[in-house]
Amino acid sequence: MATHFNQTAAHKVPTQVKDLKLVQLRRRQIVDAAVGLFVQKGFHRTTTREIAKAANLSIGSLYEYVTSKEDLLFLVCDAIHGEMEAGVTQALARAHTAAGVLAEMIREYFLVCDRMTDHIVLIYQETQSLPRKWRTEVLKTEVRVTGLFFEALHRLCDEGVLPPLEKPAVDLMAHNIVVWGHMWALRKWFLARQYSIDQYISLQTALILNSFNGATASAPGSQA
Amino acid sequence: MATHFNQTAAHKVPTQVKDLKLVQLRRRQIVDAAVGLFVQKGFHRTTTREIAKAANLSIGSLYEYVTSKEDLLFLVCDAIHGEMEAGVTQALARAHTAAGVLAEMIREYFLVCDRMTDHIVLIYQETQSLPRKWRTEVLKTEVRVTGLFFEALHRLCDEGVLPPLEKPAVDLMAHNIVVWGHMWALRKWFLARQYSIDQYISLQTALILNSFNGATASAPGSQA
DNA sequence: GCTGTATGAGCGAGCGTTCAGTCGGCAATG
DNA sequence: CATTGCCGACTGAACGCTCGCTCATACAGC
To answer: Closest CA to D19 C1' — which residue?
Structure first.
């Protein structure tokens, strides 16, 4: 099994236990338990004892696999970001079917965000509680995910599917798409009054495509 | 922070002190102190003693004006949202100068967000720490702010400045504008590598105007 | 003296973390 | 097969400390 080269940074968190396989197993239990509790009550309101209980471990054992509660938060953020990255990668890959590539990419991505709503909210809320060292690690993943969209959009421009816009405009579009996904998660409580996820997707997609169409005709005031 | 206590819900928080004028004065001290500390260290890592000290009060006095630390967080969120609402109202009003109304509205709003970056981040991070009762109160304000954009955009449609789009599309555009402001605040650490606030504004504005132009043939060429 | 505001030492519950001890399993030895 | 010794994962009571909150006391204005 080539799981040694995970895209996650979990291996940077020290452990007392020597059996690597066991570490991975237990940490999965722990992270799964923690994610549920953090989503429900937030990081600070969740006690390490509760986490241990939910993971079917004693507190003692918990601390064999983790050096501090903050480490645990990092494992959680890392796991979520890993899942996100995997989801986005798949979504972008799945959308390579000729015609409506961009629309499909957007749709797949938004569906990932819809599925991971709670996790996205959690990341926005608790990333700041991480020690600086872990926080930069988490932000790196955020950069990587946005990078996937940078690449995808630039590829579409090169292929002529999209008009040849200037780099800053394309990059910003990538940012926008990423954030629109987050927006659905963060403001579902509000948006869902008016829109279903499908309506949201088609409206936002129309907006994006329109903006490109408008740009093709003439290069408007998009100068710095 | 010249907070306008009029349209806030601060009066719903009980106090031991009877002199209303004094309550407002002290609470302003307290909120100002707390905002600074919360931005710096977050809600949970800030102690009530620190807040009292920064506000030039004893802990005893602090608790004359506030029933719990959570109440205090509410006062903070409420004050920030109040300031935000005031800022947006002014921004929208200031932009009523004929031609590039929409572009000006957007610009003014984004500048408000840029100025209030720390506060916006704080709101996103700590709103969930509020007791349910206060949280709904805070979310109401969020709805009100978005509502200001609903109205503004619909007015522009009626006046013929914007093409007559369907309500859901217009409302979503309002949401988008609101969130783009937040996005600048939340992802400044990332966006500022590539864009200045002015570049960000003009790029996003171009995108919006283009999307309108693409939507219907009859669009007035309002330039920023 | 009475009312209403200010003070800060003290309380005690709750928390993250530790550590002395338990126990199952495995390998070597007789 | 039985015995012994060791390893390493597991346990949970206990520790030390933090922090939200209280209350007996002091004090100021009328």
So the answer is: B47
Q: Which chain A residues are within 8 Å of B129, Cβ to Cβ?
A: 42, 44
A26 touches strand D (CB under 7 A): yes
Output the distance from A70 CA to D14 C1' rounded to whole Å.
23
Q: Using a 7 Å cut-off to protein CB atoms, list the covered nucleotides of chain D.
A: 8-14, 18-24
Lowest-pLDDT choice from A47-61, A92-106, A194-208: A92-106
Contact of B42 with chain A, judged by CB distance below 8 Å, is answered with yes
- Residues in A 26-55 whose C-beta is less than 7 A from nucleic strand C are 45-49
Exposed, middle or buried, A171 (CB in 10 Å: 0-12/13-18/19+)?
Answer: buried
Within an 8 Å CB–CB cutoff, is residue B14 touching chain A? no
Q: Say how many C-beta atoms besides its own lie within 10 A of residue B21's C-beta.
A: 7
Tokens 């206590």 sit at which residue?
B5
Domains of chain A, by residue range, sit at: 3-215
Q: Specify the CATH superfamily of domain B10-215.
A: Tetracycline Repressor, domain 2 (1.10.357.10)
Q: Searching chain B, which residue's CA lies closest to the CA of residue A123?
A: B125
Verdict on whether the full-model pTM lies above 0.70: yes
pLDDT at B1: 45
Topology (CATH level 3) of domain A3-215: Tetracycline Repressor; domain 2 (1.10.357)
Question: What is the pLDDT confidence band of residue B101, given thresholds at 50, 70 and 90?
Answer: confident
The dihedral region occupied by A160, where left means phi > 0, alpha psi between -120 and 50, and beta the remainder, is left
Rounded to whole angstroms, how far apart are CA atoms B212 and B223? 13
A113 touches A127 (CB < 8 A) = no
Which pLDDT score, from 0 to 100, does residue B62 have?
96
- Please, what is the average pLDDT of chain A? 89
Using the predicted structure, report yes or no on whether residue A2 has a pLDDT greater than 50: no
Mutate to test the interface with A, among B140, B171, B172, B204 (most CBs of A within 10 A): B172
What pLDDT is stored for residue A87 in this prediction?
A: 93
Instruction: Kindly state the DSSP code that residue B218 receives in the 8-state scheme.
Output: -
Nearest-angstrom CA–CA distance, A198 and A179: 17
pLDDT bucket at A94, cuts 50 / 70 / 90? confident
* Average pLDDT score over residue span A94-119: 88
Residues 160-179 of B with CB under 8 A from A: 168-169, 171-173, 175-176, 179
Tens digit of each residue's pLDDT (9 = 90 or more) over B33-66: 999 999 999 999 999 999 999 999 999 999 999 9
